[in-house]
Records
---
Amino acid sequence: MNFLRPLRVALLSLCVAPSTAVIADDLLSVYTKALDGNPEYLSVIAAYQQAVEARPLALSKLLPQIGVSGEAETISQTLSGRFFVGGMGGAPVTGADVNRTDAFNSVGYQVGLTQVLFDRGLYLSLDTAELEVSRAGLLTYEAQDALRIGVVEAYFAALSADEELRFAQAEKAAIDAVLTQTRDKAAAGLAAETEVQVAQAQLDLAASALIAAQNGVAVSRVQLELLSGGTRFGALDGLSKTYAPLPPDPDSIDVWIERASNQNLQLKAQKLATEIARKNIDKASGARWPRLDALAAYSYQYAEGGISNGIGAQGNRATDERVGLQLKIPIFTGGAISSAIRAAHAGLTRAEADEAAKRAEALRKVQVAFLNSSAGIAKVRALKQALQSTRASEDAIRVGYEVGTRTNGELLLALRSRYRAERDFAVARYETLMNTLRLKAAAGSLNHADLLAVNGALVH
C-alpha cells in the first residue's frame, strides 16, 4: 500500500495554475497611484507651492507701492456764535452773530506712491525667502524618497503576506495528507493512535496559522490602500525566483558615509534652516537701522458748500501735490527689538542642534542600511542553501516514513522546517533589497531609476 499517494496528490494540486488569468499590479503602478493619491505627499507638494510664493511676496515690498483712494460724502455743518470780535487800529468792533446750517456734498480722491530706498530688514527678508524656497524644494524631494521607500516596503509586505498564505496553505495540505496516511496506517495496524493525535494537533496548528496568514493578506492590502489614497489592489507581481540581491555599489561604507554627510536630503534641508536662523538674527538686528522712503502724492477735493470752507462758500476745489523723502529712525520700541534679537539667537541655537541631530541620524541610517544590506546578502545565500538542505531532508525522511523507519512526527517536523526555510528565504530577499534602497535614500541618491530596477526584477 502506498501511503504517500494522498500527500503527492495534495502537493501536485498546489502547483496547478488557475484557469482564469488575473492581471496583477506591479510596483510602478502602485507608486504612480500613490503619487496621485497619497495625502501626506500631496500635502508636501502644496507646502512647496506655498513656500514658492514667499519670494515674490518679499520682493513686492521692495517695489513701488501705488495706491488710490477716494471718498464721496454728504455733510451737514452748523455754525453758531459771535465772530469777528475786536478791531484793527484801535477801532472797537462788536462782531457779528452767526447761526448758520449748511448741507452739501463732497468728493475727493488721492493717488500716492511709496518707494523703499533703504530698509535692511526687507532686503534680508528677500534672502530668507529664497532660502525657504530652496528648503521647501529639498523637503519635496525627501518626501518623494519617503514615498518610494514606503511604497516598496508596503508592496514587499504584501508579497510577504502572499507568500505566507501560500506556505500556510501548502503546509496545511501537506499535514492533512500526512494525517490521512497516518490514519490509514493506524487502521492497518502499522501506526499507533498517538501518531494520529500528533498529526491532528499539527493540522490544528496549521489551520490556525492559515487563518492568521489570510488576515495578514487582508491587512497588507489595507496598508497599500491607505498609502495610495484609497486605491484597492488585488494580485501583485512577485519577485523573480532567480533574483539574487547584489552588494552595495560601491561596496565601501566610508564612501556611503561621505555621501550621507554631503547629500542626505533631510540634512541639507536642515542646513538651510540653520542659515535661515542666522538671517533672522540679522533681520531682527536690522530693525534698529533707519528706513528711508521716497514719497509722491496727489490729492483732489471738491465741496459744493461748507461753512468751514468759508461762510457762504460754494464749489470749492482744492488740489495737493507732494514729493519728498521720509526717514524713520527707531529710538525706543519698548524693548521689542532686543526681545526679537534674543529670540532669533535662541532659534539659531535650536537650528544648530537640529542640524547636529539630522547629521547623526543620516550617518546612523546609512551605516545600519549598509551593514544590513551586506549581511542580508550573506543571509540570503545561507538560507538558499538551508532551503535545499531542508528539502533534501524532507525527501529522505519521507522515504523513511514510507518504509517504516521514520515516524510521522519526524516527517511533520521536516515539513515545518522546509516551509519555515522557504518563508525565511523569501523575507530575506525582500529585506535585503529594501536595505539597498534605504541605503541610497540615506545617502540622498535614491531616484526613479532604482524603482525601475526593482520593478524589472518582478515577474510580470
---
Amino acid sequence: MLLFYIDPGTGSMLFSIVIGLVTMLYFVGKAVILKLKFVLSGGRAVENHNRYSFVIYSESERYWNVFKPIVEEFEKRQIPVVYYTSSEKDPVFSQTYSFITREFIGEGNKAFTRLNFLEADICLMTTPGLDVYQLKRSRGVSHYSHVLHAVDDATGYRLFGLDYFDSVLLSGEYQKAHVRLLEEKRGIHQKELEVVGCPYLDELQKKVASLPVEEDHRFTVLVAPSWGSNGILSKYGSKLLDPLLETGFQIIVRPHPQTVLSEKNILEKLQKRYEGRNNLEWDFNRENLVTLSRSDIMISDFSGVIFDFTFLFDRPFMYVNADFDARPYDAWDIEEKPWKFRVLPEIGIELREENFSNIKEVLLAACKDTQLTENRWKAKDIAWQHREHSGRTIVDFLVKKQQETVSSKGKTN
C-alpha cells in the first residue's frame, strides 16, 4: 500500500489552487446563466437573489465585543445584515434581532470555501490575510473591509495581513502612516483608511460600571502574556513567577488562548510547579473584564491587553521587553518603531530581568507614579477616538460604501 504525505504548507497551497479554479468556474458559469436570463427576458434586468448588501464574518466568539456595537447599529436602523460565524457558541445566537440573519458556516477550510463563493456588496471582518492564504477575495464581493480588534499598530499582523482589503477601519489617526508606507514600499493599491474608534472597547466600557466590587480585596498582580517565543511564559516562566509569589500578593496568570493550544507543555509544567499555592490563580475565562477589574497592576509583554487594562481602568502596568521579533509581521518592513513600542515607556514601566529579585518594591513604586497617569490619559485620546460612538461611525461608513457600490454597478449595467 502506498502512503502519501502532504505537509501543511503544500496542503494549503493545493487547497488554494483547487478553490481558485472552482470559484472561477462558478462565477463564469453564473455570468453565462445571468446573460441567458437577460436575453430571454427581453433585456430586462435580472435580480440576483443570492446577493447580500452587508455580510459580517466572525471567525470566533472572541470577536463578539467587536461586532456587537456594529450589529446593534444596523438593527437600530432596520438594515438587513447577514452574520456568518465560525463558532457555534457565538453570542450572536442568543440575541433577539429582526434584521440580522445569523448562520454558523463551519471552521477553517469549510468556512473559507463558503466565503470564497460569497456574493455581497460589503463584507466586514476582523480576519487578516485576505487573498494571502486560503481566504480568497470572492469575485462576487464588491468591497472588503477590515476592522481592527485592538488599539494597536495596524502593522501588528502577520505579513501582508491587510494588503488586499479595500478599506481598513482604524481606532486612531496614528495607525494611518505605517499602512501608507507599506502600500508605497510594496507597490499595492491605496486602501481607504477610516478612523472609526474601537468598538470592542466601547462595548467593554459599558460593562465596567456593572462589575461587582470585590470583597476583602488583596493587592493583586495580573500576569497577562502573549504567546510564542517572545511571550512571558515562554521566555521567563518560573524566573518571573517564583519571585512574584514570594511577594505575598495575589497573582493571577491569564495565558493567551493560543498558549493553551500551541504551548501546552509549558503551561502544564508551570501549573504542576505551583500546585497548592494559595496566592496563585489561573484564568482561562473567555471574558477578561472581571479579572482586569480585580487587578491593581498588570505585567505583560507586547500583548494588546495592556491597553484594555490601562484605558478601561486607568491603572498602571509593567511590561517585559522580550526583544520582540518583528520578522513575521508587517512591522518588519517599517523602519520606524511601531507606536505601541514607542508609547510603552511613556505610559508603563519596563520590568527587567535584573529587577525580578526586588519585584515587590518595583510594583509598589509603579502604582504611585503620577506622571504615568497623565501619560495614560494622553495615549488614550490618541488611540481610542470616537469613544462610545464607534458603532455609529462604522455603519455610517459601510452604508456609504454600499450606496457607492450600487451606484457604480448601476452605471456599468
---
Amino acid sequence: MSRAGLKEEVVKRVEGMSEDIIRLCSDLVRIPSENPPGDMTEIAGFASDWLSDRGLSPRSYEPEKGAISILAEVGEGRPRLILNGHMDVVPAGDRGRWSFDPYSGEVRDGKVLGRGATDMKGGLACVMSALVACLEALEVLPGSVVLSLVPDEETGGEKGTGWLVEQGLLDGDACIIGEPSTIYASLVGEKGVCWLRLKARGRPAHGSMPMLGVNAIEKAVRAMELLRELPSVEVEIPEDVREVVDSSKMVLRFFLAQMGVGEPLLSEAVNAIDHLTVNFGVISGGVKVNVVPDACTLDVDIRVPAGLSPGDVKAKVDEMLEEAGLEEVECELVHGSEPNYTPPSEAIYRLLAANAREVLGLEIRPFFMTGASDARFLRLKGIPTVHYGPGELNLAHAYDEFVRTDHLVMATKVIAATIVDFLGGRAVP
C-alpha cells in the first residue's frame, strides 16, 4: 500500500477510536498527578498498562523516587520520530473555586473536565492514541517512533525529558510534543529563562534613628526600579524567526482580545513575545519592624526573547547596577535557559501544517510562546521540535480547566498522519 493509502487508513482508524481517545483523556484526568509533590507512580503505572494492553512494550526509568518516565518504541532505525508528553499537572488549588470536581474527568457538553485536561492530559491522550493508530502502518514504514511520557515538565523537566536526553535514551530526527497549542497553531519556539537573585547589604540601626543605618530594602527597591527598564531594551530578532515572531504577535493579540483584554494592556502583553519581561517573584529582608534591615534578597524572573541570552541579561543588569552606584548589590544567575526555536522551514513543521490543512481543512500558524517547556532540551540537542495538541491556552493552570472532545480527535488525526508522512519520507515544498 502507498504512503497516501496508509495515511488514509490511519486517519480512519483514529475516527474509529474517537470514544477510546476521549475515555483515555478522562481516565488520565481522574489520576491526580500533581507536581508538587511530583509522584507519578499511579499515572505512570496506568499509562504503562494501557500501552501494554495494546501490544507495546513500555520501559520505565526512575532517576529519583516517583519521577518516572515511560518509553515505548515501535520500529527500528532512522528516520526516528519522538512523541512526547508530560504526565504531571499543577496543583488544583482552592477546590472552592472550581464549579466541578477537578479530578472527576467528567465528559459534559463536548468537553472533558478537570485539572490537566488542557495541560496536558488531552495532548497525552493524543500522542498515545496516535501511536496506537499507526501500529499496523509502522510494520511497513521505515524507521521508528518512540513515545516518551515524562514526570516533571511543570517543575523544569530535569528529571524527565532533560534526564532522558542527557542519558542518551531519547534521541531522534524530530519531535512532536502534545502540549496545548490549540488545533489552529503549532508552537515552534519559546523564550529563554533568566532567574536572577539580587542581594543588597546595609547597616543595622534602631528604627527610631534610621539615618544612622543603611536600609538594604531601600537598596533593593532602587534595584527594582532599574530592572523595570529592561522591557524597553531593543532586541535584534534573528532573521529566520522574525516572521514567526510577527505571526505570533497577531495570534496572541487575537486570543487575548477574545478573552476581553483591552488596550493598553493588550499591546503590552503582545510585545512580551520579542521583548524582555520582568517579574519580581520573591523578596525577603529585615528581622524586625524597629530595626533598619541590613540584608534584603530579591528573586527576579526575566524571560528572554530570541536574539539575547541569559548571560547577556545578567551582564546588562550588572552594568545598570554599577552605573546607578549600586555595584555593591550582588547579582547571581540562579537559573538560565536559552531561547530556542525550530524554524518553520523544518520538515516536521511543514508536514504538520500540510496534514492540518489536508485532514482538518485548517491553516495552522507557527507560534512563539512566552513560557518555557521540555522542547528546549530537544532543540538544544539539535532535534527539530514542535508542539501540537488540543486545549485553549488560557485554560492551562486555570480553574474550571477543560479540553474539547472534538479537538482531541482532530489533533490525534493530524499527529497520526504526520507520523506516516515523516517516516514515509514525504517531501513538502
